[in-house]
Amino acid sequence: MNLIYKISFFVLLFSLTPRVKDCTVLKNNSFTYKLGKKNVLVVFTENSHTEYHDDKKYTIKSTVEWISDCEYYLTIDEATLPNFPFSSGTRLHIEITKIKGNKIYYKSTMGTRSWEGRMTKNKASD
């Protein structure tokens, strides 16, 4: 009976232990997110972030300043996407809130405005 209590204790302890997100998956990888019905390709390098819209016809290029593996500032350098609401120099704060399988969930903040999103890691990035 003592063994059952020990096993139950360890199962409970494991279930209460916070899971560590491995956000290093962001660096040097590519992802996709939906904008309307279209897919947007997102490519991260060590210090850059580029979004490709409409089959790479338009781009949004940004510089990444990592605060930690799960948090960074994104500064927009250049955008060719028509009617893009942010100008060069706009700085956003991004925090990875969850990683589940190949899905990356994040929260973006600019000033007092925040929104949440999700990207899917591309299989070719594995």
Structural summary, described in words:
- A hairpin with a 3-residue loop joins strand 2 (38-44) and strand 3 (48-53).
- The chain has one helix at residues 2-16; strands spanning 29-35, 38-44, 48-53, 58-68, 71-79, 91-100, 103-110, 113-121.
- By secondary structure, the chain is mostly beta strands.
- The longest helix has 15 residues, at 2-16.
- The N and C termini lie far apart (46 Å).
- Helices cover 12% and strands 53% of the residues.
- The chain has one domain (21-125): Lipocalin.
Features of the shown structure:
126 residues, eight-stranded antiparallel β-barrel, Lipocalin, globular, single chain, 8 strands, mainly beta
CATH topology: Lipocalin
Helix content: 10-25%
What shape does the CA trace take?
globular
Number of helices: 1
Q: Which CATH class?
A: Mainly Beta
Strand order of the largest sheet: 1-2-3-4-5-6-7-8
Order of helices and strands: HEEEEEEEE
Please give the largest β-sheet. 8 strands, antiparallel, barrel
What's the β-strand tally?
Answer: 8
* CATH architecture call: Beta Barrel
Rg, please? 19 Å
Total domain count: 1
Distance between the termini: 46 Å
Instruction: Detail the poorly predicted runs.
Output: 9-18
